[in-house]
Model the fold of this input.
Amino acid sequence: MEQADIDLRKATYRRFVELGRAPTWAEVAATTGVGEDDVRAGWRRLHEAHALVLDDAGEIRMANPFAARPTDFRVEAGERSWYANCAWDAFGIGAALHVDSRFETHCPDCHDRIEINIHDGQPDDGSPVFHVLVPAVRWWSDIGFT
Amino acid sequence: MLLFRSEAHVDRWLAGREPGATIPITKLAELAAAWWHDRLSPDWQPRSREQSQAILDRLGLTGDFWRLG
Done:
């Protein structure tokens, strides 16, 4: 990965945190001084390298652990709220921000609400379990499903 | 990559489908910390597949299911 793309990725994540949502390529271009077309091309390379996930329109769908769209993993961290892409990412937002966090989701079986508070990286409820359906080798074959 | 009330809920939800892997939420917390802690670091560098695999291995997430490639 070229240094310019690493820098673009860092700027994109920084904007995501600052805005509390996914930035548009125009917003990242305005911050970095990189042309909009160059941001789009850089994002595409980052997408191919699995460093970002774009949607069909070329906008950000996931900047893992952050999700650009509402999901069933609502996370509160650092006095902000976010959506995570999955349970792994729901823990990851607090880990990435280095703050305590909490999140809500629902058991896919019984649909009961599950609320987890995370303090110093540890959940306050140790009873739920995490299930991964897809083997690791296929995680990126369909990252949305994974 | 979902969170269930318990293993019994996973089994019921699978309804006979081939299961994946189930780990305790405490192990997930360890995994997330190891995987994501540097995600916003100014010094972030892309991780190689071998480096990612080493994180899984270190946490005991081994075997074919957890092989990244």
Observations:
- The helical segments of chain A are 3-19, 25-32, 36-48, 87-97.
- Residues 3-19 of chain A form the longest helix (17 residues).
- Chain A touches chain B through 51 residues (CB under 8 Å).
- The CA atoms of residues 117 and 124 of chain A lie 5 Å apart.
